[in-house]
Write the structure tokens for this entry.
Amino acid sequence: MQYRYHILHDYYSLYNRRQIVSGQRLTRKRQAKIRRALLDGVVAVIRQQVIADMAAAAPKNGAKTLQARLLTAEQAATYIGRTPGAMRQLIYRREIPVVRIGRNVRIDMRDLDKIIDDNKV
């Protein structure tokens, strides 16, 4: 997803100048209000872009999309909230079962779900 970085840059440059009205310096309180307003604007722009990207990626006519059952180490790390390096360490120490297809290493999503369930306290 590509967001509108030029809008962020415009907000940032406006804030950094801290002179919005005819070269007049702003008080800290006013700067904080402007900072919050600019941040709210940035969040709104990003939220709209994410919603638009999700709507564009959604399947049409209620068709179901296939989800990959085998994940790469990076995808599996994102899935369980670890870094890719930590995931590779778990694979190396054989704490996570893997599927090897040639030289490719894949992790079954069901195994990740089982590991998550087993480690619940």
